[in-house]
Amino acid sequence: MRIVIINGTVVTADQTIEADVLIEDQKVVAIGAAGSHNWLEGASQVIDARGKYVVPGGVDVHTHFELPFGGTFVSDNFETGTRAAAFGGTTTVVDFAVQVKGETIRAGYETWMRKAEGNCAIDYGFHMIVGDVNDSSLKEMAAIVDEGVTSFKLFMAYPGVLYSDDGEIFRAMQQAANDGTTIMMHAENGIAIDVLREQAVQRGETDPKYHSITRPPSTESEAVHRAITLAELAGAPVYIVHMSAKEAVAELTHARDRGLNVFGETCPQYLHLSVEDHVSLPGFEGAKYVCSTPIRFAGEGHQEYLWNALTRGDLQVVSTDHACFFYDDDEKLGRQKRLGEGNFTLIPNGLPGVEERFNVMYQSGVVSGRFDINRWVDLIATGPAKMFGLYPRKGTIAVGSDADIVIYDPQASFTYSAPDTIHGNIDYTAYEGMEINAKIDQVLSRGKTIIDGGRYVGSKGDGSYLKRGMNQMLI
Ligand code: URP
Ligand code: ZN
Ligand code: ZN
Fold it and tell me: Which atom of ligand 1 is nearest to the CA of 350?
């Protein structure tokens, strides 16, 4: 199969060039100026990208498909979730396999393999949530690297569920330092938060907005500080997931300025949604936006701080933390967000985003002039691929890279509106009404067109498992 993309503007994290792209055997094999080659001879497919951007497929390194959580299951499984990702220009996901208490890391990995294998529209890898730190799971952290699992998430939140105490976290960090792997941290002081939640419910403060109010910024920044302190002591790299508070990002920046291997991601929901406009909506509507870390008060200035951190490089990745639950009861999954009607502590945490990230970040980042198109590519594709050992196979357009490519039309536009312009197994979008001044024309996954003119033309099982290498962002 010889595929040629002609007349397009190729955009990577480093450059923007007018060039044609030659694809053979699922890989990019040449990039060259129009007229300088004879690639069209014998081509099986020619894509004319005149007036369009040719960009790397998105890499979303924080998704949760088919995760049991909050008394129910995340509504997207690997089939529906990866298809939604493909519609939104994302061609690689790294999901979280879970080691539950009393079980092994190997068992968690195999369970997640079974969920994903043969079901994915795009390529996928796994991080491992370590839910039970003990002598044998520490050994298993080293062994699972052979399967391409090189990053491990720990929780300072959710006591009694996925929570690890400081000793457990420190031991896991020492193990990661030994193995060259990366610790991912859900940094919130879950013990203090649980006290605040209980007290709020006792006072009758049960609306969704109290989810945000009982997880104030200091509960995030304190945990980030503690995570960094423990990581420095252990000599391990730490990557803080889903950062939302400016005080927390300031902790990260301070540590990076000291030359530590600490990294951070934020997600589109923290850059666009607020307690004032979303979580405080009348009735129960705010439950749609309940996630942890929480959506913050716009009036406190978190959003502009996060945008600046992305522009400056203090945050390196935009992922989604896609963990969606139906707002209204679903025929198959039953009650989801509404489990928490009358008690915000029972609202399943998380929201959808795997489909919207690529477009929403282009609109609010590039079209709004916050950063250039190369930084956008870096944040949604190249940076995440480097952070989690997938570069340059994923996250760029270069000779030898997988031909994961999006043909992106900056002349077209559309508006997010559920159910018409979303494709996951979910009944709302967090970006309802948002206009996007661009449109995905085509998505190629390893050279195969899987989205064409807004239609899914791939098949379940196209996606392959990715064995990942080590963090490539270490200093
Ligand atoms: O609200 C969230 N973030 N749900 C998913 C689980 C997690 O903590 O990442
Ligand atoms: Zn988390
Ligand atoms: Zn998550």
Answer: 1
